[in-house]
């Protein structure tokens, strides 16, 4: 009887041991405990990872974000642009270029960056993992990026991107009225590789801000005008925005460095009229010294402007100055000619009929007339010049 009970117990234990063995094998293979649902693809709260709310940039980038793709494939991406002008470092009339320091600010919306957290500030090392517009300066000569960048991502996917730049840009100038000229220098912002069907630029609310303490060398910032410079390249349109800076040249610098010295040099040449006619060498030296000084002033002035094929206002000024100095030299030469080659003595009879001589010559009369006529004519020329060229 006891043998029969033993056999029954053995038969009852065999299925239980087999099920336990299968359970251990399954636990070894799957790596999970039996009787619990599989948690692969779920977070700690048991929600699928695809349905989990995104709170950080790492979560967004790990969810399949590709920075090489446009934010939207159905419609073009609108990129708002604004500029904060920090300073004009230089304005070079000779090279027709200028250098500015500015903050370039861009804003766009990327639906793929939507998240349920607060605004995210993107680290500089992660900015390369986020899509950005390929904006560049179309009229640039050189650009220096000081690596000062700032980027934030709002919960609705709006990206704010700002960077500090120092750029040297071309500025074609018209110098017919130099140094009384006004120039227009531009900043042209264009997309490098995206056409208007993919990306287009618009101005933000405050499109251009200028530092209130901004000072320009030899110029005054009169106005700034926003414009569109979208252009076709072989039947393809690339979006472009332009800022025109209206610059008025300050005449004060040129009055002190150019007009006053050259005017005094012309006045110096008139000293020769008051020197004795018996010292022709001294008279010629004074005039030639004035001529040399004018040449030096003209050379230093033309070094600051490019060589152009048209006549400028400064050309007219130096032509007038040279003309008066040359006229003084010719007057001295004429007086010396009459003194040596054609002397004239006029005798007058006194009331008693006795001969009386007075050594008057044409040279003396010419000196007296020139000492009055030259200043008057030069003053009139200066007044006419300033009315026609400066005003």
Structure characterization notes:
It contains six helices and 14 strands. A hairpin with a 4-residue loop joins strand 5 (140-153) and strand 6 (158-170). The longest helix is centred in the N-terminal third of the chain and has 29 residues, at 2-30. 34% of the residues lie in helices and 30% in strands. Mean pLDDT is 82; it is low at 4-11, 17-52, 344-354 and 356-360. It has helices spanning 2-30, 57-62, 252-269, 280-302, 313-341, 362-390; strands at 77-92, 97-109, 120-121, 135-137, 140-153, 158-170, 182-191, 199-210, 219-228, 231-233, 236-238, 240-249, 346-349, 355-358. The strands form four sheets. The protein has a six-stranded mixed beta sheet, with no helix packed on it. Strands 4-7-12-9 form a four-stranded antiparallel beta sheet, with no helix packed on it. The chain has a two-stranded antiparallel ribbon with strand order 10-11. It is rod-shaped and about 105 Å long. The chain has two domains: 57-249, Distorted Sandwich (Acetylcholine Binding Protein, Chain: A), CATH 2.70.170.10; 253-390, Neurotransmitter-gated ion-channel transmembrane domain (Methane Monooxygenase Hydroxylase, Chain G, domain 1). With 391 residues, it is an alpha+beta fold.
Main sheet, how many strands, which sense, barrel?
6 strands, mixed
The strand count comes to 14
Structural class: alpha+beta
Number of helices: 6
CATH architecture of the largest domain: Distorted Sandwich
Query: Termini, distance in Å?
Result: 135 Å
Name of the CATH class of the largest domain: Mainly Beta
Main β-sheet, spatial strand arrangement: 3-5-6-2-1-8
Question: Approximately what portion of the residues adopt beta-strand conformation?
Answer: 25-35%
């Amino acid at each position: 009887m006891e043998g029969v009970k033993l056999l029954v117990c053995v038969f009852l234990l065999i299925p239980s041991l087999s099920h336990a063995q299968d359970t251990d094998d399954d636990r070894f293979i799957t790596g999970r405990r039996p009787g619990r649902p599989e948690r692969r693809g779920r977070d700690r709260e048991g929600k699928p990872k695809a349905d989990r709310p995104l709170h950080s940039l790492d979560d967004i980038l790990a969810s399949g974000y590709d920075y090489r793709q446009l934010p939207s494939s159905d419609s073009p991406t609108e990129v708002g642009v604004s500029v904060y002008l920090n300073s004009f470092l230089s304005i070079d009339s000779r090279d027709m270029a200028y250098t500015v320091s500015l903050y370039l600010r861009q804003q766009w919306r990327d639906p793929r960056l939507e998240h349920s957290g607060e605004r995210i500030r993107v680290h500089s090392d992660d900015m390369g993992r986020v899509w950005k517009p390929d904006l560049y300066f179309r009229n640039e000569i050189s650009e220096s990026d000081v690596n000062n960048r700032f980027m934030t991502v709002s919960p609705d996917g709006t990206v704010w991107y700002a960077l500090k730049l120092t750029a040297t840009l071309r500025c074609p100038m018209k110098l017919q009225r130099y140094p009384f000229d006004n120039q227009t220098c531009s900043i042209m912002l264009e997309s490098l590789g995206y056409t208007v069907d993919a990306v287009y630029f618009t101005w933000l609310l405050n499109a251009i801000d200028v530092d209130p303490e901004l000072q320009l060398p030899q110029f005054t910032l009169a106005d700034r005008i926003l414009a569109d410079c979208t252009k076709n390249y072989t039947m393809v349109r690339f979006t472009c925005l332009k800022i025109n800076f209206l610059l008025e040249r300050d005449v004060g610098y040129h009055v002190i460095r150019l007009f006053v010295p050259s005017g005094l040099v012309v006045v110096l040449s008139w000293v020769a009229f008051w020197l004795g006619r018996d010292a022709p060498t001294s008279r010629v030296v004074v005039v030639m010294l004035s001529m040399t000084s004018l040449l030096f002033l003209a050379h230093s002035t033309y070094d600051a402007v490019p060589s152009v094929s048209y006549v400028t206002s400064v050309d007219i000024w130096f032509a007038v100055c040279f003309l008066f100095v040359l006229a003084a030299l010719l007057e001295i030469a004429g007086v010396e000619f009459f003194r040596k080659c054609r002397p004239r003595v006029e005798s007058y009879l006194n009331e008693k009929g006795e001969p009386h001589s007075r050594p008057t010559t044409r040279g003396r009369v010419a000196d007296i007339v020139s000492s009055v006529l030259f200043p008057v004519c030069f003053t009139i020329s200066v007044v006419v010049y300033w009315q026609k060229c400066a005003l």
